[in-house]
Amino acid sequence: MINLAKVLDAVAQADSAVAQMAQPEKVVGENIFVVMAVTLLIWFGILGYLFYVDMKLRKLNDRLAE
Amino acid sequence: MLSLLSKGLVVFRKDLRLEFRSLYALNAIGLFAVTTITAVSFSLGPVRLEPNILAALFWVVIFFSAMSGLAHVFIREEEQDTGDMLRLVFPPNAVLVGKWLFNIVLLGGLCLLIIPLFVIMLGAEVGNWPAMLAMTASGVFAMATVSTVIAAIIALSGSRGALFAVMTFPVALPVLMTAIHGTRVALEGGQLADCGNDLKVLFSFTIVIMTVGFLLFETIWRK
Amino acid sequence: MRNGMWWKSFLAVWMSVVIWAAFYYAPRAKALGETTRVLFFHVPCAWVATLSFIVAAIASILYLRNARPQYDWVAYASSHLGLLFTVLASVTGAVWANEIWGDPWNWDPRQTSIFFLMLIYAAYFALRSGIEDPAKQARLAAVYAIIAGVAMPFFMFIVPRIYESLHPDPLINESGKVKMNGKMLQVFLSSMFGFTVLYFWMLRQKIALLRGEFMLMKKLIQEGEAR
Questions:
Q1: Collapsing DSSP states into helix, strand and coil, what is residue C33?
Q2: With contact defined as beta carbons under 8 Å apart, do B195 and B185 qualify?
Q3: How many domains are there within chain A?
Q4: CB-nearest partner of B177 from C119, C136, C159
Q5: Nearest to B170 among C116, C140, C150 (CB)
Q6: What is the pLDDT of residues B45-92, one digit of tens each?
Q7: What residue numbers bound the domain in which A9 lies?
Q8: How far is B188 from chain C (nearest CA, A)?
Q9: Looking at chain C from residue 167 to 226, which residues have their Cβ under 8 Å from any Cβ of chain B?
Q10: What is the complex's ipTM, to 2 decimals?
């Protein structure tokens, strides 16, 4: 009986170990904030540039229309 | 072709004579090199530098010395208003040939000064002299070529040399990288064959830049 | 201005789909984890930076053959975009490299090439800002762009090859490309296409701005003469 309990215990432990292994390991490259930072940097850069050019273009057109 | 070369030689001799009269470019680049090497030597004291640092320092000194003096051949023509006369008398490419030869001689002369200084003041030990000299010669050849073409742009742009280093650096970067690599190999005592790739890159780069230079110089030189 | 709406709406829809797909549709590469997704935005930036360099060089050649200001506008506008995209590519590259290699900058051949492009663009604008006369500015800038364009292949292809032994190329884009499976490739190519269209849209806007400035200058000169 005691042996059986021990075996069950060991199996449970092994199971939890497997469950831990199955979890995604904490390795490099799992930081989603890096991805977010990169994406946002690119989009803000592009949008900022477009808005800047657009603004200057509108001002210029106003002056040309005068 | 032959007349181009002979006319180029006339421009070259004219520049050489003018240079010996004022010694402007010679002073500028020579003193720059001496000052830099002395400053490094002072601050180091008895410490000896590794070959990779020595090689980088060597080319940094050559690069910035070149930047302080090589644009002068073109800038002088614009400042003293002799450029228009040159435009009338010589075909554009003959002018380029003359200035190019002059800058090669100037920068080559500088190396004759720098190499002994490196050996004496910085205690550089050259592992393989033939390789070292081959690398220096081809590197200087490439550097003089790139700087001459850019110097023409600079002189005509009217910015009087302020932008010279900024504009030459990106174009000369392949030269610097290969020359530093090859010089390090030579300092460490590698054979001439070990620098073969670097020499090939430098040589082909020079040819390509010079070809483009000849094709475009007329456009640059036109007022 | 009317057909500008088409560009805008197309780009808005296409890029939204690309962004969604990059985060939800594309799988992750094993070695790169979540940061695989960086690939879909960072690499197109580097591609656009290179593309704008090529466009600027071609426009410069055309300008020297036929000195029409339109060619100069293309070269100028394209270099402007090139500067923007080299900065974006190198900054995002540094952020990513800091995560995956533990070091934001390590002179990897690709990093070096983009840095080299950035220097060229910066020098190009420094040159332009130093020249007053517009025709001379355009001409000398075109010459410089062509010389830089000739030097670039040396830099991008020959130098990194010589230094292959010195610069190990740790699982940057290559691994992504080689191991890219179907879904990733779909998203990647869509993103490349989207960024290319975006580039041409931005180029169009910038050229419109340059043309407007040109017209304004002309108008002011005419008014001055009339007075």
A1: strand
A2: yes
A3: 1
A4: C159
A5: C116
A6: 788 888 889 999 999 999 999 998 888 888 888 888 888 888 888 888
A7: 2-65
A8: 16
A9: none
A10: 0.90
